[in-house]
Amino acid sequence: MTSGRSAYDKVMDYITKAREGGEILIGGTGNDSKSFFIQSTIIQTKDPKSITMREEIFGSVVIVYVYATEYALTGSVFARDKKELIQATNRLRNAAGNMYYNEKRTGAVVGQQPFGGARGSGTNDKAGSMSIFYRFVNARSIKENLVGLEDFAYPSNLV
Question: Which domain holds residue 55?
């Protein structure tokens, strides 16, 4: 067996096993007639102890498992369509304190990037930015005219 054939068979075996306790959301097919091509695949599993959750798959396969958790620290969404990102924004409103779009999910750099969790991960304060300051104060805007008032009428109200 060639190494290409071996790798192809191994990844396709993982995809077959994943179908038993999961759902193929995208892809899941391969073609070995000319080369060893496997379509990019996303599988949602319901079993956190499935083989695809325990072992690395060296192929274009992503396994998704939705955790039931009260915590909501950081998340990320990838989409080419702006409407999909807006839909994700609305549906995931309380899913995380920080969301990244078309960017890998990372730890925020405190002092440079606002950061804070939601639900069981915090009160959505944004440490590292001015927004956390508003938790401790009653913010009020004040405008002062230093030139002197010449007229009190608004130009938009003139007929």
Answer: 3-64
